[in-house]
């Protein structure tokens, strides 16, 4: 089973943020406290608010114990989840199988022969249609990010991920100048 929710930081009140902060353990609070801006702190807390709500809905649990792997990927002992944010948007995906999610705002990308972290095949795909080059680049990058998160890797490992490989299942949506992607392996995404 896969569920995902998205929201904006303005969808939550200061009371929501304060309550979520009080529920988190010290390691997560430390990560949030190191964020430079109040907005970045809200984005992180909003992701956890979504996660807590989904866990309650899907598993009828009131708390989530989170640990981190060597690359900083947050892990849960009874489900898989992934959180991403961009600008003022947050998306959270929860599943019974490994999952990754990414959201990116579409921004101006300059055409290049080869793009950092993209394979030759992926760069050719991006450059096929110059009228939507930025959207195509962000789509590929979002797929890579979602796969990296699903696999628990670091961004530096992104070059080894082929977004055209049949071993990954992607669901990518465009909306309001954003691209959102969910990635799984061996699980179809509805």
Could you give the count of β-strands? 8
Distance between the termini: 10 Å
Which architecture of the largest domain would the CATH scheme give at its second level? Alpha-Beta Complex
Class by alpha and beta content = alpha+beta
Helix content class: 25-40%
Strand content: 25-35%
Q: What's the pLDDT, averaged over the residues?
A: 92
- Written as H for each helix and E for each strand, in order along the chain, the element string is EHHHEEEEEHHEE
Task: Give the CATH topology of the largest domain.
Answer: Ribosomal Protein L22, Chain A
Shape: globular
Major β-sheet strand ordering: 1-5-4
Poorly predicted runs are none
Reading off the top of the CATH hierarchy, the class of the largest domain is best stated as Alpha Beta
Overall number of domains: 2
Question: What is the number of helical segments per DSSP (H or I, 4+ residues)?
Answer: 5
Would you identify the CATH H-level superfamily of the largest domain? Answer: 4'-phosphopantetheinyl transferase domain
Query: What's the gyration radius in Å?
Result: 17 Å
Largest sheet: 3 strands, antiparallel
Spell out the blueprint of helices and strands.
Layout: E1 2-8, H1 14-23, H2 26-33, H3 38-59, E2 66-68, E3 74-76, E4 80-86, E5 89-95, E6 99-105, H4 120-127, H5 133-151, E7 169-175, E8 178-184
Antiparallel strand pairs: 1-5, 2-3, 4-5, 6-8, 7-8
